[in-house]
Each structure stands twice: as C-alpha cells, then as structure tokens.
Amino acid sequence: MAAMTRIAVGVDGSDASLAALDWAIDEATLRSGSILAVHSWQYVVFGTSGLEPYLPERKPLEENAVGLLQAAVNTVVDRREHVEVEIEQRTVEGSAGSVLVDVGTECDMLVIGARGHSALSGLLGSVSTHCAHHATVPTVIVPFDRD
Predict the structure, then answer these.
(1) What is the pLDDT of residue 123?
(2) By the 8 A CB rule, do 22 and 79 touch?
(3) Fewest CB atoms less than 10 Å from the CB: which of 81, 108, 123, 143?
(4) CA–CA separation, 79 and 58 (whole Å)
(5) Which pLDDT tens digit goes with each residue over 38-64?
(6) Which of 58, 33, 2 is nearest to 111 (CA)?
(7) Radius of gyration of the chain from its Cα atoms, rounded to whole angstroms
(8) What angle do CA 66, 115, 129 make, to 5 degrees?
(9) How far, in Å, CA of 131 to CA of 126, rounded?
(10) H helices within the chain, ranges in order?
C-alpha cells in the first residue's frame, strides 16, 4: 500500500474532533505522513427586521479561531508521550463541511469526528454526513462515545 503523505483533520475543539486528531496522528505516524489540522469559522451578521445589522469585527473572530485550533492541537499533543509527525494548522472562513471537503482535495485522506459541537442526534453530525457524501478522498469518521 502506498504511504499517505498528508492527512487533513477537522478540529472544532469538541471531544470528538480531539479523538479524530489523535487517530490521525497515529495513522500519520504509521504512514510516515503529516497532518493538516483545519478549523473553520464563519462571519455571522446579527440583526432583526427594521434594525441596522450588527457587524462584528473580523479580526477577533479570526484570532479566536486560531486560538481554538492551537489549544485543541496542544491538548492532543500534550496527552501523548511524543509526536513525531508534522502538524500544520490552518483556519479557514466558511462552513465546516464545505471547508473540509475543499481542504481534503489537497490531502490523501480526510479525518473527522462523528459529531462535533453542533451535534443534535444520531450517529453522524451534519458535517460528517456532508463530508461522507462529498469528499473526493478517502474519509474516516472517528466515533466518539460521549458517555
């Protein structure tokens, strides 16, 4: 089997995404590969009918996304004895499913947790379902038991 050289991992800070990153590190280690940890964020406009919309500043939203991703990666790395694979971190503006499918095209594999922060019910969340249907690379959905 050919060695994987790069694995994209969706990271939103949830326990499921941390499990996905942990799994991807093991896989990248076995395949002498590297990790691209990705966190998406969205610019949301708030407002109601008849009022001027509230437009938050982009810079703090971007900085928060970068901090969240860094903290999540540090959490997983700190739990391990050592990590021998390169972990690149990238934050991207956009919806999580679309961002991960797009970024996945740059990699040999896409890894995501079964359910993240926005999980409602069922085995798969909306992002993992979207990626399973639309990704053009092998996609691994890592289960996580919340109980």
Answers:
(1) 57
(2) yes
(3) 81
(4) 32
(5) 999 987 766 666 666 666 678 888 999
(6) 33
(7) 16
(8) 105
(9) 9
(10) 15-30, 58-79, 96-104, 126-134
Q: Which amino acid is at 100?
A: L
Amino acid 55: pLDDT: 67
* Tokens describing residue 15: 């326990």
CB-count burial class (<10 Å; 0-12, 13-18, 19+) for 41: buried
Q: Dump pLDDT digits (tens) for 64-95.
A: 999 999 999 999 999 999 999 999 999 999 99
Residue appearing with tokens 């969240």: 68
Q: What letter represents residue 93's amino acid?
A: E
Total length of the chain: 147
Per the CB < 8 A criterion, the answer to whether 28 and 85 are in contact is yes
Cα separation, 118 vs 57, in Å, equals: 23
Select from 69, 78, 127 the least CA-distant residue to 101: 127
